[in-house]
Amino acid sequence: MLGKFPISIKTIENNFSYPFVMKKNTGSQGKGVYLIKDQEYFEEVQELLSESDKKFNFIFQAFVDFSYGKDLRVYVIGGRAIGAMQRSSAKGFRANVSKGATVENFELTPEIEWLAVEASNILGLEISGVDLLFEDGSYKIYEVNSNPGFEAFEAATSINIPEEIFRFISIRLG
């Protein structure tokens, strides 16, 4: 759910149960992301927001406990999932590499490929990083990034992202 300041606690509570995730709709590297555990903490976070933060819209997402501290990043280029990595948090629920998460290659399955490619296609993205959460033997699309970083992805998968993008552009222009 998308929301803007001032945030109506009642509206959010009507659509989400605690805990849930609240984050700025712009940003990267896990900055501006909060795990809202209860109403008291939700109120405290709102009080702590600076005036500049209040100009941003916020995204509210259900918290998937089953995937606590781990997720998958699938890189999609030109309608093709080229690889996946698992990110595992060093501490807390955010599995961002900038927050100390470790990464490792993760084998693509037909389900993972389909979810990532379809999410990218629906959003009209030629290049994307699709974040999937683990959900009781399956996966759930959590976020699609239109400008995903690739340094950690390359380290985990040994896939050269600039080379893959160049190959895609060459075929497209060819």
Based on CA atoms alone, the radius of gyration comes out at 17 Å
Strand order of the largest sheet: 7-6-5-8-9
Mean pLDDT: 87
Largest sheet data: 5 strands, antiparallel
* Class inferred from helices and paired strands: alpha+beta
Number of helices: 5
The amount of beta strand, in percent, is: 25-35%
The proportion of residues forming helix, as a percent range, comes to: 25-40%
First CA to last CA: what distance?
A: 41 Å
Order of helices and strands: EHEEHEEEEHEEHH
Secondary structure tally: strands: 9
Low-confidence stretches: none
Indicate the overall shape.
globular
What do these coordinates show?
By secondary structure, the chain is of the alpha+beta class. 29% of the residues lie in helices and 33% in strands. The strands form two sheets. It has a five-stranded antiparallel β-sheet with strand order 7-6-5-8-9.
Overview features:
four-stranded antiparallel β-sheet; 29% helix; alpha+beta; globular; 174 residues; 5 helices
Write the SSE topology.
Layout: E1 2-4, H1 9-15, E2 20-24, E3 33-36, H2 39-48, E4 57-62, E5 70-77, E6 80-88, E7 102-106, H3 110-122, E8 127-135, E9 138-145, H4 151-157, H5 161-173
Antiparallel strand pairs: 1-4, 2-3, 2-4, 5-6, 5-8, 6-7, 8-9
